[in-house]
Specification:
The chain contains 12 helices and 14 strands. The chain is of the alpha/beta class and about 350 residues long. The chain has 2 domains: about 200 residues, Isopropylmalate Dehydrogenase; about 130 residues, Isopropylmalate Dehydrogenase (3-Layer(aba) Sandwich). The protein has a 10-stranded mixed beta sheet with strand order 2-1-3-12-11-4-5-10-8-9, sandwiched between helices. Helix 7 links the parallel strand 8 and strand 9. It is globular. It starts with a strand and ends in a 6-residue tail after the last helix. It binds nicotinamide-adenine-dinucleotide.
């Protein structure tokens, strides 16, 4: 029995998670998966019900779970709260509590949606790349940091720092992911200028000796940013540090032009993980049956693949998404001429109907 904790959160969170659970139920039935699914509170919803964005009960449930599915957190009604009580703190709390050091962000553009990108369709149609970003180190957490007075003026400073063991564990996630995909890994650094990157490159090369089937390349981050808009389909998996990954993963997401389609995973050393759509709680459309549930449904596919080891169930879900798009069904955020606009629940129902036994 594998345990999944579901944290719907705020705004559109409960609506999209509801559809994702319909899909999970059906796929569990088709693939004979034994899952225990519990629900908990996080974010503004948790603050409202329990006085804290990451309550102790949720913390305990999260530690016990094999994987966590999260909707989204946040909303204008919580913006006046003191910082430690804000919904986003719930998210930061669960990430650090579970030691989620590896962030996996696929940027997939289904050919049917090529027109949604700001880039020409032939550049992006069929794009399928995965960015593996280190999430708990680098300049965002390095010491010393601060703002202080030096020689009569204020200076601000931060420290970019990675230990060999931190680099090694994220490199392994990158190589393992590449093994499951196209077996090409591009490590992104700034080794021509930064010592921290010099070490990064050295360790990645060393780890690469354990993965002779993976073709390893290296790219400076400035070039990687250019290549992502020039010819993004050249990449299979990219692995990089926290700050470069922050920027490149947003750039890659925007290549697809459809925020409602993209899932993400954050993993720890035990492969327990937190799975969530990359978008926020979209308060502007919450409760209106307008939200696109596909990013959350694809997050379920990632959860089944990376934390629970059910590759065929993951593929079944991904194939169902393709089939529904082929049928011309679209939520409002991705609709185009000639397609049929549907709401959140109807999209979920269509996905359930598209799951069939013959494509796994
Ligand atoms: P957002 O991602 O919530 O929304 C940006 C735009 O995209 C909005 O117009 C929204 O309607 C649209 N959108 C987002 N998801 C969609 C979906 N599934 N289907 C259709 N349209 C979708 O970002 P924002 O407006 O900057 O933030 C809103 C709230 O979400 C804030 O409180 C913010 O702090 C929070 N937030 C949470 C997370 C998270 O939970 N991981 C991430 C980002 C923002």
């Amino acid at each position: 029995m594998q345990r999944i904790l579901v944290l719907p959160g705020d705004g559109i969170g409960p609506e999209i998670v509801n559809e994702a659970l319909k899909v999970l139920d059906r796929v569990a039935e088709l693939d004979g998966l034994e899952l225990e699914i519990d629900e908990g509170l996080i974010g503004g919803a948790a603050y409202d019900a329990a006085g804290h964005p990451y309550p102790e009960t949720t913390r305990e449930m999260a530690r016990e779970a094999d994987a966590i599915l999260l909707g989204a957190v946040g909303g204008p009604q919580y913006e006046a709260l003191e910082r430690p009580m804000r919904p986003e703190r719930g998210l930061l709390g669960i990430r650090s509590d579970l030691g989620l050091f590896a962030n996996l962000r696929p940027a997939i553009l289904y050919p049917q949606l090529a027109a949604a990108s700001t880039l020409r369709p032939e550049i992006v149609a069929g794009l399928d790349l995965l960015i593996v970003r280190e999430l708990t180190g680098d300049i965002y957490f390095g010491q010393p940091r601060g703002i202080e007075e030096r020689e009569g003026e204020r200076v601000g400073f931060n420290t970019a720092i990675y230990s060999e063991s931190e680099i090694e564990r994220i490199a392994r996630v990158g190589f393992e992911a590449a093994m499951q995909r196209g077996r090409r890994l591009c490590s992104v650094d700034k080794a021509n200028v930064l010592e921290v990157s010099e070490l990064w490159r050295e360790v990645v090369v060393r780890v690469g000796r354990d993965y002779p089937e993976v073709e390893l390349s290296h790219m400076y981050v400035d070039n990687a940013a250019m290549q992502l808009v020039r010819a993004p389909k050249q990449f299979d998996v990219m692995v990089t540090g926290n700050i470069f990954g922050d920027i490149l993963s947003d750039e890659a997401a925007m290549l697809t032009g459809s925020i409602g389609m993209l899932p993400s995973a954050s993993l720890n050393a035990e492969k327990a993980g937190l799975y969530e759509p990359i978008h926020g709680s979209a308060p502007d459309i919450a409760g209106q049956d307008k939200a696109n549930p596909i990013a959350t449904v694809l997050s379920v596919a990632m959860l089944l693949r990376h934390s629970l080891g059910h590759e065929s169930a993951a593929r079944r879900i991904e194939a169902a998404v393709g089939r529904v798009l082929d049928d011309g069904l679209r939520t409002a955020d991705i609709v185009s001429e000639g397609c049929t606009q549907v709401g959140t629940a109807a999209m979920g129902d269509a996905l359930v109907a598209a799951l069939s036994t013959d494509n796994a």
